[in-house]
């Protein structure tokens, strides 16, 4: 049989291979499969031939398998949503263009998408619903719900504008405190670092003052006090950053003017920063005597935190309360 086979297959069979085959019938099947593999590139499983399948070296079979996730298409997601809606006999999606739907159809689809957790489509239908409603009370409630969805989707600019408008339009309404608090939180989410523009930080302080001055607002007062202190700290650190920029460049006159501004505007409201301002003043005095400003700044930054008086200790020494507590 081996003689009748082509010469290119003759060398593929060795004595060891023939010994593993249990019968002549299996040997013939092996010949045919090898011929097909070499001719057409067909793959086969060794278990079909009765041969022993080599087991992995790990006897515990605890090898980790990497499962690749297949991203669902829009059509598949749409079909899943339709199946969920079909399971709920009370609500069914209205398959019409959003511009052609009336108020009740928009409400129906908005409710379904809100239950399914599809916030993007819920926002889309809610915006269309608000534009078609004439009831004043319903518009007020839906706009607050729209701001909540914007905030949940991290669209803080849109959410903050609606919250602020809501509070200014309905200051005596029961949800006014919540709207003002959410407006402050939306601004706080947009606040950058101390070396960036502090316009939003000042807006947060103004809104926080409005909240703290209203004695009826107590639900979020503790959190607003923390945000107020954080924003004040950021404004002070921004002034320190500007001072260090001028001082690093050797502009001692401009650096001194920043110190004077901090003493006149910030220190009266926050006596706890007096120690920091004195440190900066000492840097300017040493630089005027000829010392290198860069080395002075590096030494100050590398100084141990224990050498500085922290804020709570400074407040106890001055026996004064934080600036936010006066509200």
Structural account:
The model is unreliable at 1-5, 7-13, 17-21, 42-56 and 304-321 (pLDDT under 50). This protein is mostly helical. The radius of gyration is 37 Å and the shape is flat. The longest helix has 29 residues, at 221-249. The chain contains 15 helices and no strands.
Any chance you could write out the topology, listing elements then pairs?
Layout: H1 7-10, H2 15-20, H3 24-40, H4 74-87, H5 103-116, H6 119-132, H7 136-152, H8 156-169, H9 176-190, H10 199-213, H11 221-249, H12 252-266, H13 274-288, H14 293-301, H15 311-318
Helix pairs in contact: 5-6, 6-7, 7-8, 8-9, 9-10, 10-11, 11-12, 12-13
Cα shape: flat
> N- to C-terminal separation?
103 Å
Q: Biggest sheet: strands, sense, closure?
A: none
Number of helices: 15
Summing up helix and strand content along with how strands pair, one would put the structural category as mainly alpha
| Relative strand content | under 5%
Q: Runs with pLDDT <50, length 5+?
A: 1-5, 7-13, 17-21, 42-56, 304-321
Order of helices and strands: HHHHHHHHHHHHHHH
